[in-house]
Amino acid sequence: MGYLLEELFRSVPLFSELSKENKKCLSNQMNYTFCHFEEGDLIIKEGSSSTEFFILIEGNAKIILNQAPDRVVAELKAGDIFGEMSYLAGKHRSANVVACGKRITVMRLSRESMRKMSPEIRDAINHKLIELLVYRINTMNDIFSAHSATLIPPEHPSQPGEEAPRSDRERPWWRVWE
Q: Where are the beta strands (DSSP E) in 65-95?
């Protein structure tokens, strides 16, 4: 096993629960690509279709939405994983991921390459990705709870018989920060 993969397996929680034997097997079977980006490059485009996920190896990135391009939803650092929702569910990308800094390196892993892994390794990795999603959902729930007053629509519009302003009716409930 090469030094880079050894370091990756040691430092990224996704691989932390794999046995030494499974890590060696993974390093021999894993089909991955390293991609390099510069400041402002789009790593993932919201709405695009893909079943790959990424591990940020070097540098930083930010997550932004098309609806609010000036707002940073989250910041990513080395060791962070992103793109896991499309990998697991096969759905379109839910956000943009933009490179921050001069040198950004990511490891790209595809669903197809993961299917070639032994079921034990694949299931362990998928389990960790699901744990990550649950953590992120819980974090968002905490944010929503903190803003619960803004989630409850007013019982009555401004004037009796009037509808609520169009922007309030069309804003999704999870966009509490807009």
A: 74-76, 81-82
Over residues 103-160, the pLDDT tens digits come to: 999 999 988 888 888 899 999 999 999 998 898 888 888 877 776 655 555 554 444 4
In the chain the domains, ranked by start, together with CATH numbers, are 3-147 (2.60.120.10)
CA distance 55 to 147: 31
3-state secondary structure of 68: strand
pLDDT digits (tens, 9 = 90+) for 50-77: 989 999 999 999 999 999 989 998 899 9
State the Cα torsion 60-65-70-74 to the nearest 10°: -40
